[in-house]
Structures are given as C-alpha cells and as structure tokens.
Specification:
Blueprint: E1 3-9, E2 39-44, E3 47-51, H1 57-64, E4 71-73, H2 79-82, H3 89-95, E5 98-102, H4 104-113, H5 115-118, E6 130-134, E7 141-143, E8 146-155, E9 158-165, E10 168-170, H6 179-182, E11 190-194, H7 207-217, E12 221-225, H8 234-240, E13 245-247, E14 253-255
Amino acid sequence: MALKVYFLGTGTSQGIPIIGSKHPVCLSENPKDKRLRSSIWVQWDEMDIVVDCGPDFRQQMLSSKCPKVDALLFTHEHADHTAGLDDIRPFAFKVGALAVFGLERVIKNLAKRFDYIFSDENKYPGAPSVTTTIIDPTKPFTAASKTITPLVVSHYGLEVLGFRFGLFAYITDMFSITDVEAEKLAGIEVLVVNALRIEPHPSHLHLDAAIAFAQKIGAKRTYFTHISHRLGFHDEVQASLPSNIHLACDNLTITI
C-alpha cells in the first residue's frame, strides 16, 4: 500500500490569522502559525481522495497542485468543512460528475445549500455535477476503488465521521468517541486528530485530552490538526509534546 497524506489545512473554523485579530499567534511571522481550514488530500496508490472542502478549497488545490479528485468525503456539514463545494468545478468538468460521499443528513444539507449542483432540473451549463453515495456509518465503504472505514465521533451532540484508510486514520471535530468506535483504530500506524486549544472546550478535544487519546490509541505517530490560535505558537507547543506526537501544519506531507 502506497499512501501519502497532504495536509491542505490544519486550522479551526476561522483559520489563523483570524480577521482583525491582534492575538500574538495571529500576528506570527512563522508560516507554521498560518492555518487554512482543515482538510486533507490522500494519495492512495493512483487514487486521489480529499476529505472536506471548506472555504479555502480553491487556494488549497492551487497550493498543493492536486491534479484530480477521485472521491470527496465529508466529515459533516459545518461550513468550515463544506463551503468550498462550488470550487470542485474544474475537477467535475474533467470527469463529468464528481463522486461525493457523506452521511445521509450531510448529503441532504448540501443538496439544500447547493441545489444547483445536486439537481439536474434546469441545470445551468456552468454548474458542476456530482454523484452521491450515502455512507452507512456502521460499515466500510468503497470510494475510488479503495475500502474505507467510517469512524463515528461526537461533536457537541452531532454525529461526525472520521475515516480509516488502511494503516492511517483521520479524525476532526471530535469531543468524544465510544469504545466500540475506538476499537476500529486498532493497529493503525498514523493517527490524525483535532486539538483545538489549551483550555477545555465543549465540542472539541483540547490539548491534554488529545494527548491522552493519542496515547490510548498508541499509533506510532500522531498529528494534531483543527488548531486554533489559542493553542499557542506552533514551535513552542511542538517542543512540549511527546516525541511521537506532532503538530501538523499546512502543506505538510507524510507517508505511511
């Protein structure tokens, strides 16, 4: 299995810097402290799979030079994970219709917000087209000829999906996970999970909780994402972490 993961964005819903903020992290000159909204591009053999397309999607695709998207997976419907959907157009124009995957609730939400994409009635010729697959959260599914295991986590009472790609797992916007779902992570080599800030938060893991979760899962390497300015400066936080836990940053590439 050849698998490469490109971190398209590692920031929280507002990104870093936040518009108009004078917080020291937002004013940092370190490129690692500048974070677009969270998303990854997984290159699995010859297939290109993207998880979420937030409002920075166009910029992320240009920066990463992603050549195509064979499947687009959605973790949930919040705007920081979906608002860039219109910018799939160049990819959709190449293939005719882009393959989109998500929970039934999420697909219905997107079809309401982006009705011109999901509806074939009086289709505007410049609008992209999609094919949709509803993910059953209890079963593995196939996307771009690859078998992917959904992971159900809780985000302020909302069911959000993480995804396991072979020996790699990606989870964002998690506050809690059941033992049954955590068991699906057995044997992974690389884990990505959210770590929002230092202080506890009602809908996301904070730093200490993220470290504890990473140590419980026991992956060889863990990377934190969905990071806010309130976590602190990248280099200072990284220096405080265990040796096998890392802060992800935008444009970081890892291989599994």
